[in-house]
Amino acid sequence: MTAFSVSRFSIAAVVVSSLAAFAQAASADEKTGLEKSAICASCHGPVGVSPVPTYPNIAGQNPLYLEYALRQYRSGERGGEQAGMMYTVTQALSDTDIRDLAAYYGSLTPGRSYGTSMAAETR
Length: 123
Known about the structure:
GO terms for molecular function: electron transfer activity; heme binding; metal ion binding. By secondary structure, the protein is an all-alpha fold. It has a single domain (3-107), classed as Cytochrome Bc1 Complex, Chain D, domain 2 (Orthogonal Bundle).
């Protein structure tokens, strides 16, 4: 196999995996994510803008990042100060739940600051 064919193969693999991730994200349902978001609101605020500085704002976050982080918490592979709590919370979430929640929070515009502005709007 020549360097040119390896390069073409590598590019094709990246394109296929990107399309698969896009298709999976496109099948997520923002409305269903909103319906499932009550479990998140107690720490991250009702619109993904946390009133507590130690909890991150998740409104407007990249949906693929949110999916990755939630799956990592659910599997116990992600660490950090709140990892134990996130592990417990994510045990009840299916892959579909995670996709829907990520789509919902990704559709919101980021809040302006912790605690002072809880406003976020759907993009």
